[in-house]
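Re: beginner question about structure tokens

> Can someone show what the tokenized structure looks like for a real chain? I only ever see the sequence side.

Sure, here's an example I had lying around. Input first:
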Amino acid sequence: MSLLDDTVKGIGPLDRDAMARAKARLDSLAKPPGSLGRLEELVERIAGITGRDQPALPRKVVVVMAADHGVAAEGVSAYPQSVTPQMVLNFLGGGAAINVLARQAGARVVVVDMGVAAELPAQADLVSRRIGPGTANMAKGPAMSREDAIRAIEEGIRTAEAEHERGLDLVGTGDMGIANTTPSAAIAAAVTGLPVARLAGRGTGVDDAGLSRKIAVVERALEVNRPNRADPVDVLAKVGGFEIAGLAGVMLGAAARGVPVVIDGFISGAAALIAAGLAPVVLDRLIAAHVSAEPGHRAVLDHLGLRPLLSFEMRLGEGTGTALAMLLIDAALAIPGGMATFGEAGVSGRIGT
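And the corresponding structure tokens:
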């Protein structure tokens, strides 16, 4: 049996007993039951994922996976492909937005080369799980082979395994790859069946002509490849990306180990479509950090049934939304242990109780 099959089989249901205990604790606190809204929902969900009714998640990691895309040759991005390796080096140097926000959230940033189309200098903090120097041009044929798609997912699983062995309580997903909103739109269209024009956005900031070209390229890729929506690996192989596959693997690997997964924007959403297609139960383990300014992201979250925590009109990627969401998660998890109960506070409970 393959690593992917073993991982999928290892993802169990939420721990309902832990969720009930967490709810009972929340309801005993000096406040009307449910009055902290989605903060209380977060506590209960995380209790179900971890199996602990008063969980704490101090060891946080944002996994930023980077790869290039052959479809960039079609002029779908406002930036050249050389930006991908340049930004990887910026992540490693601590100068990117995700570095700043992760520091605020108390999270480590793990940078993974899944297939950057450049030779990166060896660095101790760079994790190499390369599948190849970027995908092929999906507008002309499959982005990758089926074998490479599975391999990329499994490299994502291995990344989650390695971080779990190092110490991991909460993981966020981030991405870097010029043109990667194009395969994300293709995956979203293939899985949801929605029109490409509704899903494709401006990405790095293309103008009207660039957006029209991007829509046409995605439509052509879908026509040329005809991905099978009933087969997530086929969709991934034909119109996906190495970092998207790797992120799907991180989601599956973390879920199998009882680690909550905070997903970022459109690219992470596309990865979640693949992960959920392989193991629908993984959705119980995913927390949507925010809804991006990319139009397709809202459609992806709706399809997955995930409610975003934030709506800040962000569209940077890198895992920036996950770092912000981690701050909210910390706040939510502080409530059960930090608040007094009605009895402890000397506050009267509801009439008739």
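Each token stands for a local structural state, so reading them left to right follows the chain. DSSP finds 15 helices and six strands in the chain.
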